[in-house]
Sequence to fold (144 residues):
Amino acid sequence: MSERQNFHDKRRSSSTLLAIWILFICTVHEGIHRSKEQAVATSTSKTSDQALQTTISLLQDLFGDSQQRNFAVRLWDGTTWRPDAESGEPARFTVVLQHPGALRKMFLPPTELTLGEAYIYNDFDIEGDIEAVYPLADQFMGGQ
Fold:
């Protein structure tokens, strides 16, 4: 099998398609972040709101149907998202995104190494029971 054909076969897998979608969203997201830094003070609030909305939408798409519902994600500005906000169940852990490009750093390409490097380089942090993160990470990385 040629290297090119092997590449195209890998691109067809669902996890790779998800990665492409994440790359697209994160690229738009980082573009919003860059324009936020270059914008005048009056438009900064609007740009920031767009970055937050894009991230929350992405979180909903990625983790909204997750079997594990007892976690939260806190964004760089303090906004907190939960997959099941109505449940009274406390979050066992919180993933803290340190900056708008953190999801891109975490999941592209979607490997355990990428996720580990993003953690080491402080793109995100985990507060609470770190062992409770493993089932969610396995679900996402396994494409289940």
In short: Residues 3-141 form one domain. The beta strands are 71-74, 80-81, 93-97, 124-128.
